[in-house]
Design a protein that fits this description.
This protein is an alpha+beta fold and about 350 residues long. Helix content is about 40%, strand content about 20%. The strands form 3 sheets. A 5-stranded antiparallel sheet has the order 2-1-5-4-3. Strands 7-8-6-11-12 form a 5-stranded mixed sheet, with helices on both faces. The chain has a two-stranded antiparallel sheet with strand order 9-10.
Length: about 350
């Protein structure tokens, strides 16, 4: 049967939880007990507390509903020195299903706590107190079981979500930020340096299909893993490294004061040094590595991350059309012409 017994001070602040069944019924100490209820209920509770301060045991023939879960309760307030005991039991409104044995058990438990809490033993008629709670009802067992099952299911779901989130943050093959999470990472970076610009570089490995066709997909995966390792070693400050899909990658260099051709050339040179200074060797076979890259600037070309990636992708294909193994900077005029 759902019940609780708490100690509050004269302001209604919870100072001690003697018991709470279930434990989540009364959330925390040092919070206002009255705030757990609606505005109208709070007013009635305040009146009950005022009566209790005059050394009276107060129990009204009404129910109060907890805001956070809607549980209906009957309450009894018992005065202590400078504090009050508040006893509550659930009332589901179905008198015929009440179990007197359960009532007695909980009321005797309450009386024991009251006696231990007071300096002088309080003589109280347990049966009289029980009468005050005749309409309090036992929580349906199926509801308790369903709630417990739901808690277990929610716990398992939380674990699964954590695992899924970890998989989404990192690409499983390369360990780079994945395509499912890069927008969140970029938003975080932009927020860290408000008012600054950032350059997104879309990178496509030239002729990667020939690696898979010639040496097989296992060799292709090994090639991508080595490519990603080199990309991680890229010597560019404040740069997020991303695997977009397949042989497409991206980097976002953020916190820049400005972006121009000089910045674009510095990014390309850093890429060239990290990625293409030597071939990739898989199973003692040297495989050439070249990339085409396109760059667009957040805060200049657009303030929309999805447009930023799309513009960089367009610039990358411009570099491909120029003969590959090169880079291009996004040009809005040419982009709009291509769309018309």
């Amino acid at each position: 049967m759902t019940s609780f017994l708490i100690v509050v001070d004269n302001m209604g602040i919870i100072r001690e939880i003697k018991w709470s069944d279930p434990v989540y019924l009364i959330p925390n100490i040092n919070e206002s007990f009255f705030d757990l209820f609606s505005k109208l209920d709070k007013e009635l509770l305040s009146l009950m507390a005022d009566k209790c301060r005059k050394n009276k045991i107060i129990s009204e023939d009404v129910t109060f509903k907890l805001r956070h879960e809607g549980t209906k309760l009957r309450l009894c307030i018992v005065p202590l020195e400078e504090r009050m005991l508040i006893f509550g039991m659930e009332n589901n409104g179905e008198e015929k299903k009440s179990n007197p044995h359960d009532f007695r058990k909980i009321i005797k438990k309450m009386m024991s706590v009251i006696k231990d809490s007071m300096e002088q033993e309080v003589a109280m008629d347990v049966e009289a107190v029980q009468t005050q709670f005749e309409k309090i009802q036992m929580l349906n067992n199926e509801l308790i079981n369903a709630r417990r099952q739901l808690e277990k299911a929610n716990s398992k779901l939380y674990v699964l979500n954590e695992e899924l989130n970890n998989r989404l943050v990192k690409d499983t093959l390369t360990g780079l930020v994945s395509r499912y999470q890069y927008t969140s990472e970029m938003k975080w970076a932009i927020g860290k340096f408000p008012g600054k610009v950032g350059v997104y570089t879309f990178i496509d490995i030239d002729d990667f299909k020939s690696v898979n066709d010639t040496y097989g997909h296992a060799a292709g995966d090994a090639y991508l893993i080595e490519f990603a390792r080199r990309l991680k070693d890229l010597k560019l400050k404040n740069t997020i490294k991303i695997r977009v899909s397949g042989d497409e990658f991206g980097i976002f260099t953020y916190g820049l004061e400005y972006s121009d051709e000089t910045v674009a050339e510095e990014i390309w040179n850093a890429l060239h040094e990290a990625l293409m200074s030597e071939p990739i060797i898989i199973n003692d076979v040297q495989m050439p590595l070249a990339v085409s890259a396109g760059m667009s600037t957040y805060g200049v070309d657009t303030d929309n991350i999805f447009e930023l990636v799309d513009y960089a992708d367009y610039a990358m294909y411009t570099a491909k059309r120029r003969g590959k193994n090169n880079y291009a900077v996004f040009d809005m005029k040419k982009y709009l012409e291509s769309k018309s």
